[in-house]
Amino acid sequence: MTDRQEFPGPTSRVFFSQRLRLHYVDWGNPSAPPLLLVHGGRDHCRNWDWVAERFRRDWHVIAPDLRGHGDSQWSPDGNYSMSGYVYDLAQLIHQQKLAPVTIVAHSLGGNIALRYTGVYPESVRKLVAIEGLGPSPKMMAERQKKTVDQRMREWIDEQRTLSGRLSRRYPTIEDAFKRMQDENKHLSPEQARHLTQQGVNQNEDGTYSWKFDNYVRAWKPDELPYAEIEQLWARISCPSLLVYGKESWASNPEADGRIAHFKAAKVVSFEGAGHWVHHDRLDAFVDTVREFIA
Fold first, then answer.
1. Which residue among 29, 32, 172, 199 sits deepest, i.e. has the most Cβ atoms within 10 Å of its Cβ?
2. Cβ neighbours of residue 206 under 8 Å, at least 6 residues apart?
3. Which pLDDT score is estimated for 167?
4. How far is residue 87's CA from residue 116's CA, in Å, rounded to a whole number?
5. CB crowding 18-46: b at 16 or more within 10 Å, else e
6. What's CA 23's distance to the chain center, in Å?
7. For 27, phi and psi rounded to 5 degrees?
8. pLDDT of residue 222
9. What is the assigned CATH class of domain 3-141+213-293?
10. Which of 127, 97, 122, 99 is nearest to 37 (CA)?
11. What is the predicted pLDDT for the residue at 4?
12. pTM over 0.85
């Protein structure tokens, strides 16, 4: 008998952060130690369903929707800063009294979780970040070659473009499903269909659109200096696992030198996996994480 048959699905809950109504799902088992699953950019909390089902028996699994994603409220001014995301995570952990919490996070969620852990190292028991260190040192160096006025101008132009960009509308949910399959060739049809069904809203005219706010695409021009991000990484005291897919575009921190900024981190890479390691190699990923966070 599977966990899906034994237990009901997750319960939707709400918390508030900077006046935003933010959504998360709670997989039950509140007497167990807390395990927080944080999704990546333009994604949603239900992308963790397969992972959550494997861990819910031994952990109190909670998966939030980031602001502007999933069923969380969109920022009224279209402003999505890293500091805002970190504050939201801090609020959820504070309000639900989850510390010391174990965190598994992907991509943008990993970036947020790493920064939170650097700010509050005593609040995180163990951390797993799937390709969460952000742009490679090479990309950051290219970005830093631009003057502040160039970065501001590009951001303003991008904001203006996004202000006129409507969410893409798919005639049927099957069309959205095909787009999901095109995005990640490793996904099984079952995975792609589930992610699509949980990731779209139906519009009034019957078409379907992804739930995320298009403004989440913009990278703010006043981001922390790279040296200060490295300082946050250096403050992380808990055991940390940095996960990478060998077929991903992301830069491996062992190869590019970023691992040197961590006190207690190790890197593990997965064959046959791209950016979404927890989808592409689910069984191997769960086995590795289960052993690490035990």
1. 199
2. none
3. 92
4. 8
5. eebebbbbbbebeeeebbbbbbbbbbbbb
6. 14
7. -90, 10
8. 86
9. alpha beta
10. 127
11. 47
12. yes
Give pLDDT, residue 6: 63
Which two structure tokens, joined as six digits, stand for 17? 């952060």
Identify the pLDDT of residue 2: 44
**Cα angle 44-47-50, degrees, rounded to a multiple of 5:** 155
Structure tokens at 3: 């966990």
**Cα 120-213-144 angle, rounded to 5 deg:** 60
Matching residue, tokens 């805002």: 84
Q: CA-CA distance, 294 to 279, in Å (whole number)?
A: 21
Burial pattern 136-172, b for ≥16 Cβ within 10 A else e, equals: beeeeeeeeeeeeeebeeeeeeeeeeeeeeebeebee
Q: Which of 123, 245, 50 is nearest to 113 (CA)?
A: 123
Per-residue 3-state assignment (H helix, E strand, C coil) for the chain: CCHHHHCCCCEEEEEEECCEEEEEEECCCCCCCEEEEECCCCCCHHHHHHHHHHHCCCCEEEEECCCCCCCCCCCCCCCCCHHHHHHHHHHHHHHCCCCCEEEEEECHHHHHHHHHHHHCHHHEEEEEEECCCCCCHHHHHHHHCCCHHHHHHHHHHHHHHHHCCCCCCECCHHHHHHHHHHHCCCCCHHHHHHHHHHHEEECCCCCEEECCCHHHHCCCCCCCCHHHHHHHHHHCCCCEEEEEECCCCCCCHHHHCHHHHCCCEEEEEECCCCCCHHHHCHHHHHHHHHHHHC
**Cα angle at 102 between 101 and 103, to 5 degrees?**
110
Q: Could you state, in chain order, the average pLDDT of each consecutive group of 10 residues for the chain (294 residues)?
A: 63 98 98 98 98 98 98 96 98 98 98 98 98 94 91 95 93 97 93 97 98 95 92 98 97 96 98 97 98 98
Quickly tell me which residue has 């799902």 as its tokens: 25
